[in-house]
Known about the structure:
Elements: H1 2-36, H2 49-70, E1 78-83, E2 92-97, H3 98-116, H4 124-127, H5 129-160, H6 162-179
Antiparallel strand pairs: 1-2
Helix pairs in contact: 2-6, 5-6
Amino acid sequence: MILKLSIANILLALFVSNLAVAQTEAGDSNSQQESETPYEVVITGQPSKAYYRELIQKVEEDYFARFNELNTDDMYDMYCYEYTPTMSHIRKRACEPLFMIRQRAADGANLAFSFSTGGVEWGIADAIGSVQNESEVVRQNNRKRNYDALVQKIEELTLADKQLGEIANVMAQLKNRLESYSGN
């Protein structure tokens, strides 16, 4: 019985050593074959529209992060977020400056205050309508002035900072590829 086990162990050891030698020889022949190949064929598919959109979002986030870092006035910092519009289940993405986010919050607070005081329900809103219209004109003028200042800051910082300019260039190229996407 002992003799049978030792013969089995010897045969197993020979099999394993032969297997290791065969694998080494196969690996050597594959590496020789790879190094002797005069060219390399790489097959890549055309990226999808979804891929471009996702990549644009990533580049956009990098752009706004760099812009926010360079920008000295926090009111012009850009923030991107996802939201679900009213009467929809489809999530959307938006990027806005802080001054716009704060203005929308103030408008919502003013509307909630007018509801809580009964201004909307009992006709008081009609009595103060002319005041609200004037304040709306002022808000629109402030919003336009802030957007013009934001555009000027973006242009100045994009031209002044090399990294921001490169990110903007990549983003423009990606958007151009998405617009001219043929899908073929």
